[in-house]
Amino acid sequence: MKNQTPTLEPTFVKKDEFKIAGLQCRSQMKENEDQKEIGQLWEQFMGSMPNIKNKTKANTTYGLCFDFDPQTNEYSYVSGVEIDDSNISLPDKVVVKTIPASRYAVFTYKGDMNGVGDAFKYIYETWLPQSGEKPLDDYSFELYDERFLGPNDKNSETDIYIPLK
């Protein structure tokens, strides 16, 4: 891995259903390809974030991956914030996604965002097969809070949530 390995033993948490409001794009898993597109999405989102009302946590954002197509390696990605009401007026192009209640394996990744793909690779190709746990293949998300110091900061920490069956 380019950066530190994620926590080898994840914590396990249960989360209730919640909603994320943010901007969405379609990307493809290729070496360094999705980083640029997703980085641009984050830049756009950070500009529109002050216009999203009813945020539940002022300094917490999410990166939601879903709708993965194994044939093309394409997936949908939303950069967003948790909201407590999706019936409010939202800025143009903002989508709302409902994350179902689930049990999660939570891995803490430490490093700049260039290595986060390696962390996912470790989780899905090494940890999950050895753990006996079965993932829900519908989605996963990253949580960015006060420990996230920026995409290029090697001291940044990001929690990766993998929903389990």
From TrEMBL:
Domain spans labelled AraC effector-binding: 8-165
InterPro entries cross-referenced by the UniProt entry: AraC_E-bd, Cass2, Reg_factor_effector_dom_sf, YobU-like_regulator
Pfam families linked: Cass2
SUPFAM superfamilies: Probable bacterial effector-binding domain
Domain of life of the organism encoding this protein: Bacteria
Name by which UniProt lists this protein: AraC family transcriptional regulator
Naturally occurring in which organism (per UniProt): Chengkuizengella marina
Lineage: Bacteria, Bacillati, Bacillota, Bacilli, Bacillales
